[in-house]
Amino acid sequence: MQQLQFAIPSKSVLTFKIQAQMSKLENIRVLIRTVELGSFSAAGRSMRLSAAVVSHRIRTLEQQLGCRLFNRTTRKMHLTEQGRTFYEHCVEVCEALDRAEASIADKGAAPRGVLKVTAPLGFGRRVIAPLVPRFHASHPEIDVFLRLSDYLVDLFTEAVDVAVRMAPLTDSSLVVRKIADVERTLCAAPSYIDRMGLPKTPADLEKHHCLKLRYPGARQSRWTLIKGKRDFDVSVSGHLDTDDGDILTDWALTGEGIVIKPLFEIAPHIKRGTLVPILTDYAPPPVTLAILHAYSRMVPLKVRTFADAVVDEARAHIRSSLSGLDTNQARSLKKVRA
Questions:
Q1: What is residue 2's three-state secondary structure?
Q2: Which of 103, 159, 318, 323 has the most crowded CB, counting CB atoms within 10 A?
Q3: pLDDT in tens, 268-280
Q4: Is the pTM higher than 0.90?
């Protein structure tokens, strides 16, 4: 009887095939990120790759598949019909892989990698900065790079993983996880009120020194106040403005003018009587305190883990800050999720 013989691949051949498949999977993830963000350069920044590397990986996929995935012009790029079909199947595969990884996350898999975070100056100093060392102690495989700025940092251009923002949210390309709706109030120091008098209506603000936060896109010369269903748009002026919200608070405390601030940020000063809410029948529009990231699919474990920590820390901080204010002053406390 003739003996059948089977060729068994060598270890080196198996290793090569595994590496090739892993490389193909990475190329697929690059493809998905490119479709999500709309360009090679944006995908590269978010994945810390150059646009040339992203382009090369897409070309490699196209060569392997024998078809073009994107139609490219000097200004735009969009998926071909074949590219759209391939992309949709790739998303399903990668989401299944991520679900498999997430299913064992609580059974030993630890979040790891570099996490680039941005947050507003004041909130970042008081809440995020103290949190980061404790977070790193609990997750030593994550290196956190923290940048504080009251400017709205572009997540794609700056390759930011997580942004903590306290502002009206308008960028629909970002994924938002809301922490709280933040009420704001107008306030001034007793010394300023003694010197300049107390405004009775929004129109009176035009005669006062108003302290303004300056950053690109800010409507620093006009303030909007709301009473019931009516909006009051007021032209304001003043001799001081800055791009640092904490400096505005310091100036208000020394009697330099009237400021709009999140209620929870100035609550300690209101409790001590060093700042006094004014025009309390009129409220500036609330802003949203939220975590933003650009991962519409396949959110990395390091991002999810950090976001959970920030939500818990931020809500606890807001509740603590507002605790002890009277009913009218502490109305924001009810809007902070438990």
A1: coil
A2: 318
A3: 999 989 999 998 8
A4: no
